[in-house]
Design a protein that fits this description.
single chain; 124 residues; mainly beta; 11 strands
C-alpha cells in the first residue's frame, strides 16, 4: 500500500501561484510514477500532469502546459505541483496519484493509489 497526502491548496487570485505537495508513505516511492489530476465542480476528474519514477520525464495536459510544473524529490518521498498564472478555470479539487507504469499514471482508471485531494480556488 501507498498512502498519499496532499497539501498546499487554498484560495488565490487570478494570476497568482500555489505550490501543492503530495507526501507518500508505505512502499518505495521511487518505484512509482506520479501524477496530478483535478476535478472541477460538477465535472469529471481530469489528468493534469505526470512524472516518471526517476523524474526524468514529464507530461502535461495542454490546458496547463507552460504554467504548471511537476517535480519530485525521491529522498523526501514527495511530489510537487507548482502552479503559476492561475486562472479561475483551474478551480478544482487536486489529487495526486501513483502507478507502477508511467503510461498508466496519465489515466484515472489505471492509477493504483490516490490521495484525498486538496481544494484550489482561483478568484477572478
Amino acid at each position: 500500500q501507498v498512502q498519499l497526502v496532499e497539501s498546499g491548496g487554498g484560495l488565490v487570485q487570478a494570476g497568482g501561484s500555489l505550490r501543492l505537495s503530495c507526501a507518500a508513505s508505505g512502499r518505495t516511492f521511487s518505484n512509482y510514477a506520479m501524477g496530478w489530476f483535478r476535478q472541477p465542480p460538477g465535472k469529471e476528474r481530469e489528468f493534469v500532469t505526470a512524472i516518471s519514477r526517476s523524474g526524468g520525464s514529464t507530461y502535461y495536459a495542454d490546458s496547463v502546459k507552460g504554467r504548471f510544473t511537476i517535480s519530485r524529490d525521491n529522498a523526501k518521498n514527495t511530489v510537487y505541483l507548482q502552479m503559476n498564472s492561475l486562472k479561475p478555470e483551474d478551480t478544482a479539487v487536486y489529487y495526486c496519484a501513483a502507478a507502477r507504469a508511467y503510461v498508466d499514471v496519465t489515466t484515472t482508471s489505471r492509477c493504483d493509489y490516490w490521495g484525498q485531494g486538496t481544494q484550489v480556488t482561483v478568484s477572478s
